[in-house]
Design brief:
Layout (H helix, E strand, L loop, with lengths): L2 E5 L6 E16 L6 E2 L5 E2 L3 E7 L2 E8 L6 E4 L4 E3 L2 E15 L2 E5 L6 E8 H9 L12 H15 L5 H25 L5 H21 L5 H25 L9 H12 L43
Parallel strand pairs: 6-10, 7-11
Antiparallel strand pairs: 1-2, 2-5, 2-9, 3-4, 5-6, 7-8, 9-10, 9-11
C-alpha cells in the first residue's frame, strides 16, 4: 500500500503521504475543454486529465495543458520528466470511495522524485490515444436505474412511490427494446453512442407524450422512434460537420411536424395503467459547479444509459 499516515510532531496533525513506484500514468483528453481565469486574471485552458497509480493506489493529479511534457522535481529541486517507473513521495488528500476503495487527489507540482527512471513513452501514448479497453464491460446498472426512475417520477409528478416503480420498470423495458432495435439498424455505431441516443430519445419522448396528455408506453415509444429516425440524424450531421454542411433549411419544418404528429394518435390508444396525466413539467435550473482555476478538478465522463 502506497498511502501512509504521518503525524506532525509539532502540530500533532495527521497527513497522508503517497510513497512508492509509479506503475501507470493515464493522460486522457477532456471531452469538454474550457478556459479558466485565476485570481490574478491569468487564463488557463487545460486539455487533459492526469491520473497515476502508485503501488496499486490511484491518485488523481488534476488537469494539464501540456500532456506531452509532464515535468516534476526531484530531491535536488531539479525538473525531470514524469512517467512510469519513478519512485516518488507525494502529499495526498483522501476523496470519496469508489467500489469500496478510497480515491486520492494531489498536485503534480507536489511530486518529489526520489529514485527510478521514467518511461516517458507511457504518458505520451496515453495523451495521444484513447484509453485502452480493458475487455471487461462497465457496470451501468446504477445509471439505468436512475434513468428509468427520473422519467417515471416526472411522468407521475412525483406522486406515489409504488406507481413510480411500476412505471420505471416499463420505461426500462422500453429502453432496452429500442436500444436493441437501434443497434441492429446501426451496426457500425458504438454501444456508447447507441445507449446515449436511445436514452435521451426515450427521456424526451416521455416529455412529448406528457405534454400531449397521453403517457402510455405506446405513445412514449412512438415519440422516441420519431426522434431517433428524424431529429437525431440531422443533429448528428450538424455536430459532425458544423456550419460547413448544415441540413437543408426546408427539411427542418418537416422534422418538427413529424415529431408533433408522432405524439398525436389518430386512433385511440389505451392509457398506461400506471402513469397519469399532469400539468406541464416544472422548469428546473441545473446546478453549475465551477472547476478550480488552479486545475485540480477532474473531468467527469459521460456514461450512456
Amino acid at each position: 500500500m502506497a498511502i501512509v499516515e504521518e503525524v506532525d510532531r509539532r502540530t500533532k496533525r495527521t497527513t497522508l503521504l503517497c510513497e512508492g513506484t509509479v506503475t501507470a500514468v493515464y493522460v486522457n483528453k477532456l471531452s469538454n475543454v474550457k478556459t479558466y481565469t485565476g485570481q490574478q486574471g491569468k487564463s488557463w485552458t487545460p486539455t487533459h486529465s492526469v491520473n497515476i497509480v502508485v503501488d496499486g493506489d490511484r491518485v488523481s493529479m488534476g488537469l494539464t495543458d501540456k500532456p506531452d511534457n509532464l515535468r516534476v522535481k526531484n530531491a535536488d529541486d531539479k525538473y525531470v520528466d514524469f512517467g512510469k517507473g519513478l519512485e516518488i513521495t507525494l502529499p495526498v488528500e483522501k476523496g470519496e470511495e469508489y467500489n469500496g476503495k478510497p480515491q486520492y487527489t494531489a498536485r503534480l507540482s507536489d511530486v518529489c522524485v526520489v529514485g527510478g527512471e521514467a518511461v516517458v513513452e507511457q504518458a505520451t501514448k496515453a495523451a495521444s490515444q484513447p484509453a485502452a479497453y480493458s475487455g471487461k464491460p462497465k457496470d451501468t446498472t446504477g445509471i439505468q436505474v436512475g434513468h428509468a426512475l427520473n422519467i417515471a417520477f416526472d411522468l407521475i409528478d412525483y406522486k406515489g412511490m409504488k406507481d413510480a416503480l411500476a412505471v420505471a420498470q416499463d420505461v426500462h423495458t422500453l429502453t432496452l427494446k429500442l436500444k436493441a432495435e437501434y443497434a441492429a439498424e446501426h451496426p457500425k455505431m458504438s454501444e456508447y453512442d447507441v445507449g446515449a441516443c436511445v436514452g435521451h430519445a426515450v427521456s424526451n419522448g416521455a416529455k412529448f407524450a406528457k405534454a400531449k396528455g397521453d403517457t402510455s408506453v405506446e405513445q412514449i415509444e412512438k415519440a422516441a422512434k420519431a426522434i431517433l429516425s428524424q431529429i437525431v440524424p440531422a443533429m448528428d450531421s450538424y455536430v459532425r460537420n458544423g456550419l460547413k454542411t448544415q441540413p437543408e433549411a426546408q427539411e427542418a419544418p418537416q422534422e418538427e411536424d413529424a415529431v408533433q404528429d408522432s405524439v398525436q394518435d389518430e386512433v385511440p390508444v389505451e392509457k398506461h395503467a400506471r402513469a397519469v396525466k399532469s400539468k406541464a413539467p416544472a422548469k428546473r435550473t441545473p446546478k453549475i459547479v465551477q472547476p478550480d482555476p488552479d486545475g485540480d478538478s477532474d473531468d467527469d465522463d459521460l456514461i450512456p444509459f
